[in-house]
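Hello Y.,

Per our agreement to keep a running log of every chain we model this quarter, I'm adding this entry. I've kept the format consistent with earlier entries: sequence first, then predicted structure.
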Amino acid sequence: MSAPTDKLTVAVLGTGIMGAAMARNIARAGHTVRAWNRSRAKAEPLTADGVHVTDTPAEAVTGADAVLTMLYDGPAALDVMEQAADGLRPGTAWIQSTTAGIDAITRLADFADRNRLVFFDAPVLGTRGPAEEGKLLVLAAGPAEHRDAIAPVLDAVGSRTVWTGEDGAAGSATRLKLVANSWVLAATSATGEVLALAEALGVDPDHFFDAIAGGGLDLPYLRMKAALVREDRLTPAQFAVSTAAKDARLIVEAGRAAGVRLDVAEASAARMARAAEQGHGDEDMAAAYFASFDEDGHRP
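Predicted structure for the entry above:
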């Protein structure tokens, strides 16, 4: 991999909620950014920030110093990188930020090895707001000797990087991401249930929030997600129900493979899937609240 320069050429593959914000911030930091998305129309608004939108993944990665993938899941990331293979050059850094799951990371790292890429397992913590502000928390694993070369990219998208190891193929960053997301999903599910139960029992939710105010049970995240439901601000999503359902499945699978029973994670996965089936898949994951009601998500 080449030595770091003041200005990098970065390919961003996947411009959904997170990828689009990351591409913008990398461009705003002064780097050349080429972006690709399955639906080009979703990527086109990035041109206003100087991002070059391409027709193919191979076109995006050609000549790039670094490639950042932010796609739906591991199989999607592998498929897109295989499409990009003809444009990749040995020594290019691959910053893999998709929440891909433990098994998928092994397959992605194998692809990187075959194509002589410098592989970084680098999922992020944060939602739309922090992504747009360039304040994501980056969880990363990869070779220390190449970290300086990608530091400008990580600095553009995040406020902090937590290094978990030197071998991206080991998936230590992805494992930490799954642990962190298990807490996020549990808190989100609990928020929806407390609002649904209060409504069903005729309890004013404000009385609940007053009761816990200032104590150990009073979480800013609880209030933030509850407000999205109560104020009908579920779109645009900070983090979509459908993506949360996918992450929940990965958490359950990881726990099962490790011999750990995760009852709360399994319940969260079921709630997210049910909310998606009710038509809330593109809304914020707080919309799992509706999964407490009948099959159509209608309150009794």
